[in-house]
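Objective 1b. Sequence-to-structure analysis of Plastin-3.
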Amino acid sequence: MGSKNKIIITNLYILGHFSYSDIAKSFRKAINRKEGILAIGGTSTQSSEGTQHSFSEEERYAFVNWLNTALENDPDCKHALPMDPNSDSLFKAMGDGIVLCKMINLSVPDTIDERTINKKKLTPFTIQENLNLALNSASAIGCHVVNIGALDLREGKPHLVLGLLWQIIKIGLFADIELSRNEALAALLRDGETLEDLMKLSPEELLLRWANFHLENAGWQKINNFSSDIKVGICRSLFQDSRAYFHLLNQISPKGTEEDQPRIDISMAGFSEKDDLKRAENMLQQADRLGCRQFVTPADVVAGNPKLNLAFVANLFNKYPSLTKPEGEDIDWGLLEGETREERTFRNWMNSLGVNPHVNHLYGDLADALVILQLYEKIKVPVDWTNKVNKPPYPKIGTNMKKLENCNYAVELGKTTAKFSLVGIGGQDLNDGNATLTLALVWQLMRRYTLNVLEDLGDGQKANDDIIVKWVNTTLSEAGKTTKISSFKDKEISTSLPVVDLIDAIQPGSISYDLVKTGSLSAEDKLENAKYAVSMARKIGARVYALPDDLVEVKPKMVMTVFACLMGRGMKRA
Ligand SMILES: *[C@@H]1O[C@H](CO)[C@@H](O)[C@H](O)[C@H]1NC(C)=O
Ligand SMILES: *[C@@H]1O[C@H](CO)[C@@H](O)[C@H](O)[C@H]1NC(C)=O
Ligand SMILES: *[C@@H]1O[C@H](CO)[C@@H](O)[C@H](O)[C@H]1NC(C)=O
Ligand SMILES: *[C@@H]1O[C@H](CO)[C@@H](O)[C@H](O)[C@H]1NC(C)=O
């Protein structure tokens, strides 16, 4: 099969999930329209197939500089970096997938097994593989890539490249703005609040609190209501004149009290500069002294570009949080368990399907069932949005009742239309965020979604575990492989050898067997094999959400999704 066909198939695969109903179609149109109006301020337009898409030159400039710094020392990016931020070289540089793979791995370390990236003597086919690897890995970390195909990246479509890059960069910037990963964030607790209240906040909300916390300490005005500001981006009114930024930098700059950090005193000399742009430049020169002149130009500060100012603040937070974990107070740290691997995978899966709002906290963000209802649509269960669903903004009084009604409807749909097994699960449990019961529903949604993809490929034939196991066994034996599986609980899966063999059966010659450990395997060997297997699966075009540890530990649910995705990929080969 030529590489052109493969590209088309990848695109169909990505779009396939969406083509089932008129609702979905109009939804997709809405998204496409939205992409067309992305640009803010100075814009450029590119026409492709008669469609005009504008993109933001500010974003291009900011992301190029960020990439240039982030990947500066990576020998595999020498062919592409440094890029000129004032040119379109970014869009060309994305075309072979290498830089993209590296950025994904920077945002979520260990997502991509280095060994699976094609780096030398690239051909259209091996480039295609890199782009598959990048796109499927981006999905796996929760990027919404439904409208982006490998061909778009290959051609360097600016609005799509920038859209994807922003998602990847943001995931990296936000990774540590999360209480369970950074307990010092509890310093942001306000009177009368519990840790639980704080844990419900989105990373954007936490960032704004953080900025306000430091501004308050500086005796500078803070924003008390951010509900409206957060919509336009946290930084508009707060930072546009750079004065709040000056104070923020001054608060967070290292004071020389920690051994490994020399003292840096922020100069406030530019604070009283009359001209907005010059003041912004002065402020950024101070940020530069902290190694934080990133994402914004003086013009972006003055214009209040929401995306880029958010990134600037997030980067400041990551470099200099300057918070002290509160001690000896009445705080129940036991709550801070952090999310499980399974919870994260479910969340990434949902976000990759583009649910709105973005799911930051699995239970809290599903408590009004709106995301669950969107997921029903993805598995072809029609939702009566007009008559059965309460949509935000919810009324001040009776908010929870409205959410509970949605939850009840979600359970009802599951029991009646979707025919899920939901014994003992009520709307109240979703609304309360009961982990066990919410996970039970979410897993059935993900499982059905995975099977639907298979059924669509198999002309509507029903798919189930047995059919997948049989297909795996048959495909392995037809390719002359000696591995086989008895079920998704088969201990042999812990070696990842059946997965690796299956990948090689689907795409003969794709596996470098010299990289695969065999014989009696240590825990480390198993993990190496699993990392290789997961990245290889993504590289040949399977949208695998599971993680290497799921294979090593033989987690039956996630194992099922791996084999189902590979079966889907294998059926497209026919
Ligand atoms: C991905 O990240 C891990 C951990 O940071 C690193 O060991 C590995 O070399 C990286 N791989 C790529 C492809 O950048
Ligand atoms: C928030 O503050 C802005 C002005 O700073 C005001 O117009 C708006 O009504 C306030 N919103 C809320 C919800 O209090
Ligand atoms: C969640 O629901 C299960 C089953 O009803 C129950 O056993 C468990 O205690 C609940 N968990 C919480 C935290 O309420
Ligand atoms: C797959 O192969 C295993 C091992 O030979 C066998 O036990 C099992 O019955 C087979 N399963 C299916 C569904 O073919």
